[in-house]
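From the shared-data thread, chain only:
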Amino acid sequence: MKDVEIWGGVECTCRRIGDSYSDQLTRSGHRTRISDLDRFAELGLRTLRYPVLWEHVAPTSLAQPDWRWSDKRLARLQALRIEPIVGLVHHGSGPRYTALHQPSFATGLARYAGLVARRYPWVRFYTPVNEPLTTARFSGLYGLWYPHGTSDEVFVRVLYNQVLATKLAMQAIREVNPAAQLVQTEDLGQAHSTPALRAQAEFQNHRRWLSFDLLSGSVTPQHPLWRYLRHHGLSVTELDVLRASPLPPDILGLNYYATSERFLDERVARYPGRSVAPAHKGMPAYVDVEALRVPEAQVEGLESLLRQAWTRYRRPLAVTESHLGCTREEQMRWLQQAWEAVNRLSHSGVDVRGLTVWSLLGAYDWSNLLTHDGASYESGVFDMRGGYPRPTALFKMVQNLARHGHHTHPVLKGAGWWQRPSRFYPLA
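Structure, as tokens:
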């Protein structure tokens, strides 16, 4: 049986905090370096998650789009025979004339998507909005990104607007290209907890599927979160817009990190220095930490979580982000274990289309959730700390996986830090 395809991705978040934007493409230098695409082709990649961002193309008005950058890049990808999965908004709030919590976000993105499709009618795969649920949490619930909401009401509105925008965008795209496919990305996580927080963990484990459930039209009065969504601002009419004419993803794009699985613990004194969620509606205050770091957490892992998604939706899957900010050796182990997991699933009958090496040029400031520029950098297949793309040990590994389906290196025989006892927090 054929192995899962290796895909690539460029970290392209364009996030807003207050009146300021931060752009990963500018920080990596990719905005001015088209030659990166040739380096990606050297890896043997044939599919690439690639941005044509609303904030970049039409920053001041949809009536005045500037296609020069995307024209050159997409033409080069065509020449290299690399198929793009085009992203339109990546953890952003859109240009200044809209925002995630405003009705104009959905209608504006739909109009922009139609412009993109008419400009590039050959593009087959789209991700109109990357990780809507994650963006809604950070922008509407935790207050980190614009519009800095800190309530369930803002979270629900921001999530709904992004899902509606995705549906309207794909409809606009399919007016131009009826064969266009939606690759909907979302974080693949799971909440674990102490017995006292079982109800909160159960809520979060229902919530993690909301983007897919809303798009698929399965959020009905019988859905576990129907009452939650209604109580926090969505009308039956709004929910019926999605329920009456579903637009399910053609491919579920699932992103998995060492931080994706969480552990909720009311014993807050065990975790000095960690932020604490306040007590609420009879639930105790608690910390939310990486499950990998807690001895009593029974972590599921990538393979098990992918199988959950397959069982729930029975739609093609892809791992659309696989990255570890760590040493070269650990990055290689992380990728190797992900490669083995997706191929075991594929060989057992699960339809897994791709494993995305993310991010090819590394990532900036995700250690502080993009709240401060210049604090950190994590290399990927290339290291940008010298100002140009220097291949790391991952380069040869990705090349071998893409071209031959295997890679041999002594470090791959060892366990990753996420599997060693030293990973656990020294609990107070």
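The chain has a mean pLDDT of 97.
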